[in-house]
Amino acid sequence: MAVDNGKDKAPATRLAEAGRRADWTRPPGARAGIVNPPVWHASTILFDNLAALDAGIAAPDAGLYYGRRGTPTSWALETALTELEPGAAGTCLYPSGVAAIAAALLSLLKAGDHLLVTDSAYEPTRSFADRTLRDLGIETTYYDPLIGAGIAALVRPNTRAILLESPGSLSFDVQDVPAIVAVARARDIVTVLDNTWATPLLFPAIGHGIDMSVQALTKYVAGHSDVMMGAVTTTAAHYPKLRSASYRLGYCVGPDDAYLTLRGLRTLGVRLAQQGKSALKIAHWLAAHPAVERVLHPALPGCPGHDLWARDFTGASGLFGFVLKQGKRSQTAALIDDLDHFGIGFSWGGFESLILPSNVAPIRTATQFEAPGPLLRLSIGLEDPDDLIADLAAGLERYQAQF
Ligand SMILES: *Cc1c(COP(=O)(O)O)cnc(C)c1O
Question: Measured in angstroms, how far is the CA atom of residue 47 from the centroid of ligand 1?
Fold first, then answer.
């Protein structure tokens, strides 16, 4: 759904109001309406007569047409996400964040094209480029996330797109988005940013010159660890092509999931603020712990790209990592197995805290990731941060007892 309003309000107000169009929240002619656009389940849409059917065929995105083109439930979520990004013209929804990344790239690239991807990219993004895109005749070069304007040296005559992720969701290096955007704009290269860590609240990507802002809504926007969903929000220049490519690829989302995601979006601001605050407190505590070699959190000086984060972002979310001074991954069982308040699992951005051992070095190809001991990633939830600190303190004590 394309929209062009709502950008004059502050983000918190947009979060509360976006997507609640009267024609989606009240039956025609009713004297009152409901707050949330309801869950519209549909495959078949019934037209009143042949003239209405022909009008639909002539303008299939102008209203209800066929289930795959969405219903007011998905349009409300698309509209709300678009309204959160100043400068954006439309949003398309996907059944996962990975599907959103795949659709954005497939809408832009064809055989013979060249793609630049950050070396800090989410691993499934890399495997999509290395396998699916390669098989389609599209070549990928990985770049140092700290490259900035130096990315110009990697551009080839057939470079069509740059895929950024800032900060990287395992290593947390922050990129110089404006510098990379300037290089891209001067050469007609399209920039796609995986903005899942910051969301448009902490980094309004389109406003910073990015052409396509991708989110795994699975993480912070849905926020409750029970939905898979992705989105690409983009400008007027790119929306029609993205929309038609996504339709041809057959992407659509279930209305129950769209409803849950929109419900999550309403409280995104307060959750992010609280989770970010707790995470920063825990990050500072970890940075002072004798077992910890370094903390990978963009708001901490020393994190690669910290100055860029301070310049460009309005805050930090609740996902960060820390590197231990010694030991092997197998030994982290002593730390994580008996934690009371951290689940062990993939994904992040939910209301509950998670811990995950990760290994960046084998994923990288353009740069090296050095770490003397294991890397652990924390997704800080809405629990009391002091309970989380006490839990981690006990875990780190168990870990150190092994040496
Ligand atoms: C999880 C994640 C994705 C993919 O989202 P799914 O909904 O799990 O497919 C994309 N990018 C980043 C940075 C992620 O963490």
Answer: 38
CATH class of 11-266: alpha beta
Largest CA distance in the chain: 78
- Tokens representing 173 are 């290096």
The residues carrying an active-site annotation are: 68, 122, 194, 219
Bond into 167 cis (ω within 30) = yes
> How far, in Å, CA of 228 to CA of 6, rounded?
27
For 235-250, the pLDDT digits (tens) are 999 999 999 999 999 9
Question: Which of the listed CATH numbers 3.30.70.20, 3.40.50.300, 3.90.1150.10, 2.130.10.10 matches domain 268-400?
Answer: 3.90.1150.10
Whether ligand 1 lies within 6 angstroms of the CB of 97 is answered as yes
- Whether 11-266 and 268-400 share one fold: the answer is no
Of 135, 144, 134, the C-alpha closest to 114 is 134
Q: Is the pTM of this model over 0.90?
A: yes
Rounded distance between C-alpha atoms, residue 346 and residue 358, angstroms: 10
Question: What is the C-alpha to C-alpha distance for residues 30 and 221, in angstroms, rounded to an integer?
Answer: 31
* Beta carbons within 8 Å of 125's beta carbon, 6+ residues apart: 98, 101, 117, 163, 165, 194
User: How far away, in angstroms, is 172 Cα from ligand 1 center?
Assistant: 15
d(CA 220, CA 349): 4
Distance 329 CA to ligand 1 centre (A): 23
Beta bridge partners of 215: 231
**Domain chopping of the chain, boundaries:** 11-266, 268-400
CA-based radius of gyration for the chain: 22
- In percent, the amount of the chain with pLDDT more than 70 equals 98
